[in-house]
Specification:
This protein is of the alpha+beta class. Strands 2-7-8-9-13 form a 5-stranded antiparallel β-sheet, with no helix packed on it. A 4-stranded antiparallel β-sheet has the order 1-10-11-12, with no helix packed on it. The longest helix is centred in the N-terminal third of the chain and has 28 residues. The relative contact order is 0.15. InterPro entries: Bulb-type_lectin_dom (IPR001480), Bulb-type_lectin_dom_sf (IPR036426). It comes from Platanthera zijinensis. This is Bulb-type lectin domain-containing protein.
């Protein structure tokens, strides 16, 4: 009898551990679809939603893809190195090159100190939100001329 209880307890513990491992693996692999102020998207990293992926490419181009097709891009390929996308606390998306003091692209001169977030939506529209829609991939950005 004690052996049966011990066996059931061990089975329960093993099942609990397996469930915890599966939950941890799922949360680690869950696709990131938004950025908050102060966050960065490093070269080679992506936001994903639905069948869309927004990737900060190694060549400094920010690309929005639907499958293999580019639906929007920043046109900043080759303008820097080790670039990253940064959401400023004032509500502006900016691509910086490592070590550069100036941006190579930004979502626009709009500044809004209210809490904002940058969201890649499942319909493929990447939108910078605050109290209103500040910028989206349907609008153009500004490329810094060097």
């Amino acid at each position: 009898m004690a052996s049966t209880i011990r066996s059931a307890a061990v089975s329960s513990i093993l099942l609990f551990i397996a469930v915890q491992i599966l939950l941890a693996a799922h949360s680690c692999s869950a696709a990131r679809s938004k950025m908050m102020p102060g966050e960065t998207l490093l070269a080679g990293k992506s936001l994903s939603a639905g069948h869309y992926t927004l990737t900060m490419k190694e060549d400094c181009n920010l690309e929005l893809r639907h499958g293999k097709n580019i639906t929007w891009e920043s046109h900043t390929s080759g303008l820097g190195s080790k670039c990253f996308l940064y959401l400023e606390v004032r509500g502006v998306l900016v691509i910086y090159s490592e070590g550069a003091s100036k941006f190579i692209w930004r979502s626009g001169p709009t500044s809004n100190p209210l809490s904002s977030e940058f969201v890649l939506q499942p319909d493929g529209n990447a939108v910078l939100f605050a109290t209103t829609n500040l910028w989206s991939t349907a609008l153009s950005g500004e490329i810094m001329k060097t």
